[in-house]
Amino acid sequence: MYHFCMALVQVDAVSKNYPRRAGLRTESDTVVEDISFEIVTGETLGLVGESGSGKTTVARMILGLVQPSSGSIRVEGIDIAKASKYQLKALRRQMQPVFQDPYAALNPRMKVFDIITEPWAIHGIDTGTSAGRHDNRSTLLRIRASELLREVGLDDSALLRHPHEFSGGQRQRINIARALALRPRLLILDEPVSALDVSVGAQIINLLRSLQRDHGLTYLFISHSMPLVRYLSTRIAVMEHGQLIEIGEAVQLCAQPREAYTRKLLAATPELPIGAA
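Predicted structure:
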């Protein structure tokens, strides 16, 4: 069990609006409206709501891919919107996404070895290979990539294969390995199993739980499935139509939800066959 000590992410009164043409006028669509929460080091915050509730927009704002229209988002105390290029690059090493579609997330022309080692090249990470001959460097990179694959339940025979040779669950494991390459503190998991069969998704959820235990990771886990969120999360935040309507400890919130919408989410999705990790 984790002992939480500090907020890794602080979202303070954040809204996001997009312009929309209405005849000759330009109006504004509010996607996220005045939400505040924090993600504490070592926890899993589950962000749950139906499609269109604003969950993915929140994730993209935390990653710095979308700027808030108002409010602030701080990661490790640094305001994402005001961060320098150097600060933003350093923060992005600490925050890695795992997206919904394991088929679209991997470059089909790249081999798994290149996919997994690409983050080190992009961020200029010294993996202990900077010194020595080229053949030694290649060997060390292969060793590091093989270690990442083993962490997610794959062996090094995958390194020289292309994404189309793998099942959906295996591709998501490769995505997770790539996300772990930079040893981030925070993984943003945006519907990571919604495109997978139920039994395969359950395996991925158990893998994520195991990785969190082994590496002390912090998760923002986004899903429309309350049973998934309840299983993996320490706390749960419920979004409806861009607003954060309820947040609390996972066990208490699921046992005694305050809002009718939360009760609707609990009743709408069946339990999933997830065993203890």
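Summary: Residues 165 and 233 are 32 Å apart (CA to CA).
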